[in-house]
Amino acid sequence: MLACKSMLHSRSPVTELDGLPLSASTDYEQDRGLQETKKHLKSLSKKLSQFPDRCTLKSGHYNVNFTSSLGVGYMMVCTDSYPNVLSFCFLDELQREFISSTPSSRRPSSGTTAPSLSTKINLTDMQTEIKLRPPYQLSIEDVGVANGFTHHTPSKYKGIAPNQMLEPVSLPGIVSCVLSLLCTGLNLLRGVHAIESILQNEDEDFNYVIAFFLGSAACLYQCYLFAYCTVWRSSKSFLCLALICLCNMYLYELRNVWQILFHVTVAAFTTLQIHLRRPQGKAPDYTV
């Protein structure tokens, strides 16, 4: 298969995430750097499930670009000067062709895929996607094999891919953020008044100030968790909810029941919206 006809003879294997090869192109390129780079393909194919669904491994003057979806990985070797957007357009098209040609099984009897593929994906859309969610950059140590030696790598990729996108914002989510910002402002205002009371009366409890500002920070952090994809988002949101409840319990002498109920309800509602807004998966958009 000639993925980059004007650049080099490239190798584009298709493999399951457990490392079992399904198909691959053949080439006769004798460049030493390319041959060294292709040695990483076998190691990568056994560890695809440990990495994000779109990655790039740089090896000398070559890049190994790969994507994975639905339990199958697609890899491509090309020169480092070849645009990433064209590489991933090709891999997405390869993925489409592979799935559409094997509707009942991912294990074709033939050892090769289609002889050539034309990139049908809109380059503008792919450029936008690459900009918003760039490929995760792997190192040789991440692959686990360099110069014949095996390096220790984690058994599972931890966390999420950088800049991973969340699902579109819903109206309840917007409302929850607005209410959380309102609670943040109310807590800050009451905290400032508490500081003024302490300055005028030394007998006032300074812990009230701490409770107000901790509540403000927790509300603000919930807005951040709703807007951005981070590790352990749901767990962090529940911790924020617990902190807001504790702060309001401590402030029961300064707030009536309805005020406390309002702050706790808003925090619980925001926590729910954080949990419901999940990271986006890879858009299937396949003809299967």
Task: Please summarize what this structure is.
The protein is α+β, with helices and mostly antiparallel strands and 288 residues long. It has helices spanning 32-45, 84-101, 123-132, 140-143, 171-200, 207-227, 233-250, 257-276; strands at residues 14-16, 21-23, 54-59, 62-69, 72-79, 136-138, 145-146, 149-150. It is elongated and about 85 Å long.
Helicity range: 40-55%
Give the number of DSSP strands. 8
Strand line-up of the largest beta sheet: 2-1-5-4-3-6
As a whole number of angstroms, the C-alpha radius of gyration is 26 Å
Helix/strand/pairing class, anyone? alpha+beta
Broad shape: elongated
Beta percentage is 5-15%
Query: DSSP helix count?
Result: 8
CATH homologous superfamily grouping of the largest domain = Longin domain
- Stated plainly, the CATH topology of the largest domain is called Beta-Lactamase
- The overall pLDDT, averaged over residues, is 75
CATH class categorisation of the largest domain: Alpha Beta
Assembly category:
single chain
Secondary-structure element pattern, one letter each: EEHEEEHHEHEEHHHH
Largest sheet: 6 strands, mixed
Which architecture of the largest domain does the CATH hierarchy give at level 2?
2-Layer Sandwich
How many separate structural domains?
A: 2
Cα distance, first to last residue?
23 Å
Poorly predicted regions = 1-11, 105-119, 145-162, 282-288
